[in-house]
Task: inverse folding
């Protein structure tokens, strides 16, 4: 009977070990900036969930648009009500593949390119982002940046405020992943 | 022995499935699961802190200051000599500040009876769904008004005769993206009333609603039923009676960035509760209606 338990334990360990290829975090930071000389428009969320599968080189991202905090409460309200339409489209998400070769066994920071689909406001677009990835056994750090235009995601900006909002919005992402337990 | 083999095979299979369920788990469902259920609060139930004249459940958030300018032209039925009311104007200026996300305080000054006012508005319940479910917004307003206009000698004797106190509960629900409705039970105590037949304590129930015509434009309607008993009937015996009406207002909200512009038609001239609930003398039937607007500008003092 002892042998049986041993077999069970060993086989469990063997099969379970496979999960080590997935890293996750629930509090990644995303901020965006669409400031113009007329208006500072910056917002940050630290509630983004993201996973990285180092075997398949797949990255996924998801964030609730209502989790973005602005300095001006009214701006936050307008962001959710008028621009992102958060009640209708609560999430922004990204699914992508790391196209550069990353040596996951090293612990040196590398520049990597990630190509994938960014979905927000109910519209999906192919995007490519430049990332810096620092692999590690128990921790993977990553940061990335991309630029998007509101028009590409069918986010209409009324002419009255067109000059106050940047034509191109810079999105910055910072995440520290831990192995999936 | 045979039994043992079978059991071990079963255990290995079990281990395989268990571990496999982690290993082969779809990344999407993994992310779904790792996100805690969130509470989603209904925001922007109304575009402004006022439905038209009366308060809405909305407040300034923490460290946000609102400067409000409200203006009502004269009564439409005053004819061409008065350019149908546009020659006259009543103004109310107000500064309103969010001390916390749930507490707002404000001060104001009106040309109507030279009234000064101060209020506090507390949000007690917020409509939400998700992790926490709450079907309604509930806010409470306490306000004091002090009339500054020159009274006749007898009335001027004490300051307290100039004061009115307003207690109001606002119950609102955002039914969907377009439609929000509000019920507003109100109690007003006036220390001194203009006519003997009038009650010092007034009970009123307001109903208000907004319907979004587009993302930035909304139609608002507001009506206050005021319980006056048979005050108007008794008043017929007075030589020059003042007849009061229930205020009905119809307005359009237009939102542009940091401004909200409200334009309305109302039979109330005053822009404070004691005035528009207690002393509305214009009637829709008799053309005693005013064109008016509220302008709101919000300043942020958060870092």
Result:
């Amino acid at each position: 009977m002892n042998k049986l338990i041993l077999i069970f334990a060993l086989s469990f360990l063997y099969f379970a070990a496979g999960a080590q290829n997935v890293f996750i975090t629930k509090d990644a930071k995303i901020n965006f900036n669409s400031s113009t000389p007329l208006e500072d428009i910056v917002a940050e969320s630290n509630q983004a969930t993201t996973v990285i599968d180092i075997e398949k080189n797949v990255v996924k991202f998801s964030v609730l648009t209502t989790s973005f905090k602005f300095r001006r409460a009214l701006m936050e309200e307008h962001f959710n009500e008028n621009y992102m339409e958060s009640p209708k489209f609560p999430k922004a998400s990204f699914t992508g593949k790391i196209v550069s070769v990353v040596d996951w066994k090293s612990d040196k920071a590398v520049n990597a390119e990630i190509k994938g689909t960014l979905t927000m406001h109910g519209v999906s677009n192919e995007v490519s982002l430049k990332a810096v990835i620092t692999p590690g056994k128990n921790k993977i750090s990553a940061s990335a940046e991309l630029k998007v235009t509101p028009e590409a995601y069918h986010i209409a900006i009324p002419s009255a405020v067109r000059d106050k909002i940047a034509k191109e919005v810079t999105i910055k992402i910072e995440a520290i992943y831990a192995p999936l337990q | 022995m045979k039994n043992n083999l079978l059991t071990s095979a079963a255990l290995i299979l079990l281990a395989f499935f268990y571990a496999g369920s982690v290993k082969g788990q779809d990344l999407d469902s993994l992310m779904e699961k790792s996100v805690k259920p969130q509470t989603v609060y209904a925001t922007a139930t109304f575009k402004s802190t006022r439905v038209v004249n009366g308060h809405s459940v909305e407040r300034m958030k923490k460290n946000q200051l609102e400067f409000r300018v409200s203006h009502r032209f004269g009564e439409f039925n005053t004819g061409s000599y008065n350019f149908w009311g546009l020659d006259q104007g009543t103004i109310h200026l107000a500064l309103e500040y969010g001390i916390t996300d749930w507490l707002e305080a404000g001060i104001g000054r009106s040309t109507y009876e030279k009234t000064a006012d101060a209020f506090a508005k507390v949000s007690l319940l917020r409509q939400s769904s998700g992790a926490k479910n709450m079907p309604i917004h509930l806010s409470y307003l306490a306000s004091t008004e002090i009339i500054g206009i020159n009274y006749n000698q007898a009335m001027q004797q004490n300051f307290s005769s100039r004061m009115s106190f307003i207690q109001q509960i606002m119950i609102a629900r955002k039914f969907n993206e377009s439609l929000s409705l509000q019920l507003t039970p109100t109690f007003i105590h006036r220390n001194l009333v203009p006519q003997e037949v009038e009650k010092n304590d007034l009970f009123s129930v307001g109903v208000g609603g907004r319907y979004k015509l587009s993302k930035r434009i909304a139609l608002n309607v507001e009506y206050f039923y005021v319980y006056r008993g048979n005050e108007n009937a008794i008043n017929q015996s007075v030589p020059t009676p003042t007849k009061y009406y229930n205020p009905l207002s119809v307005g359009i909200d237009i939102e542009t960035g940091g401004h909200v512009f409200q334009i309305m038609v109302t039979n109330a001239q005053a822009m404070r509760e004691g005035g528009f609930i207690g002393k509305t003398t214009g009637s829709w039937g008799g053309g005693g209606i005013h064109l008016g607007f509220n302008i709101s500008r919000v300043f942020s003092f958060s870092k």
